[in-house]
Amino acid sequence: MKKVVVNAYGEPEEVVECVEVEDVGVPDGDEVVLHVLAFPINPADISFCRGRYRLKPPLPATPGAECVGRITAVGSFVSSVKVGDLVINLDRENWAQKRRVKSNRVVVLPAGIDPCQAAMLRINPPTARLLLEDFVELKEGDWVIQNAANSSVGQLAIKLARSRGIRTINVVRSEDAFPTLYKLGADVCLIDNGNLVAQVHDVLRGADLRLGIDAVAGSATARLASCLSPGATLCIYGSMSGDAITIAPSELVYRNIHMRGFILGRHLDVLSEDRIRSLYKEIIEDLDRFDFKIPIEQVYPIENIGRAIAHAQRSRHAGKILVAPNGSI
Fold this sequence. Notes:
Blueprint: E1 2-6, H1 12-15, E2 16-20, E3 31-40, H2 43-50, E4 68-74, E5 86-89, E6 98-102, E7 106-108, H3 115-118, H4 124-133, E8 143-147, H5 152-163, E9 167-172, H6 178-184, E10 188-191, H7 196-204, E11 209-214, H8 219-227, E12 233-236, H9 249-253, E13 258-261, H10 264-268, H11 273-290, E14 296-301, H12 305-314, E15 320-324
Parallel strand pairs: 8-9, 8-11, 9-10, 11-12, 12-13, 14-15
Antiparallel strand pairs: 1-2, 3-4, 3-6, 3-15, 4-5, 5-7
Helix pairs in contact: 4-5, 7-8
């Protein structure tokens, strides 16, 4: 059996290696075995390889926050999952050909779902939804501002907001992203620069802006904060710049901007197993209703993991890079 390991933290394409390991074996009574059909390479996985992610396990370690797989064996006590089911795995270490996990750590998917899209289902769709739902009570007509709007989370947030009558200001680095975002339903697209506050002021014309969503960190956090109304919430869920967050104390002291951090696992940990399954069911129904597809640029075999992860760093917004560890999907 093949899996990917990181032997030393550093430049991802240099420290990842595809190795042969022992098979996962047969499942215990409450376990299942799945063949991994595909996994995406996410920014968090790249941070993991560099040793900059919140989880920094002893090495060697296997990356991979999400995947889609087909159940090939179930334990004697398992009744909620059967052989042949397509599933996502809620556990980590998914850059491998097979996984053996507890049966309550997989979510069964509809039979007709596209496995490539399902490989990207676990993290970004619930992140977009919970960012819009869990921090500020928004109503139809309200405004939200987000940066990295052409990311997968950003694009999903646009679709979800549009479906609820919530208006979005979408901040990106290049006007090249504007046509795609407007086609998705963006209300306003702006360039992230020193004129951002004035541009947002002209858009709002006195309307409140009570929620900001930040995936970039660094000085971008300060620019978003300055756009918000007094007492608004700024939620940080990523740090794509790699820089420390900077924000003027006056934003917190005088304008009472509330800064919140978001990580999906913390939100899912407080939900029951039934609620987690219903959440993903609702998300799948939304994505089907929107006919939303995340662009995929290329699919690599697991043996070419170094090339795949290098490609993912070059084209973070052109389309996702997937790996198919067991051959064609």
